[in-house]
Amino acid sequence: MGLLDMLGSALGQGNADGQPHQTILTAVMELINNQPGGLQGLIQKFEQNGAGGVVQSWISGEANQAVSPETLQNVLGSGALNDLAGKVGVTPEQASALLAQVLPKVVDHATPNGEVPPSGQIDVASVLGSIGQAGGIGALVEGFLSRKNNPASPGDTA
């Protein structure tokens, strides 16, 4: 089974009830909330690993900067990625690639008006509702899957 097949399976493509999508979002939000200090602790990890500008873009009203799977590996470590992979049924490398697409959107939706929750804990129900209104998890990973299926041509800047 290839990467796209496994991600499609993990994402539950074609599943009308959206449960696998919610499982992925919930797992990502648990990953955030389980950090020492919650979201604030995650932000500090990004800053300590030279990616503070990236995570700040997700919180600000500006366009979200992309994060690489390698940066996530450096920031979160293999233990957190292994745990996430186990929860969503993919390899740690696939979990890192998926997280690179989903985490910026989750943090963006968890910090309305550019404000990190004082407790550091994100409100799972609120974020799920916000993402649902924005098109759901399918919309979050659609770009990831389409890039894998249709790689950009050398002159493409998108």
UniProtKB/TrEMBL annotation:
SUPFAM superfamilies: YidB-like (SSF140804). It comes from the Bacteria. It holds the Pfam family YidB. InterPro entries: YidB (IPR045372), YidB-like (IPR027405). This is DUF937 domain-containing protein. It comes from Trinickia soli.
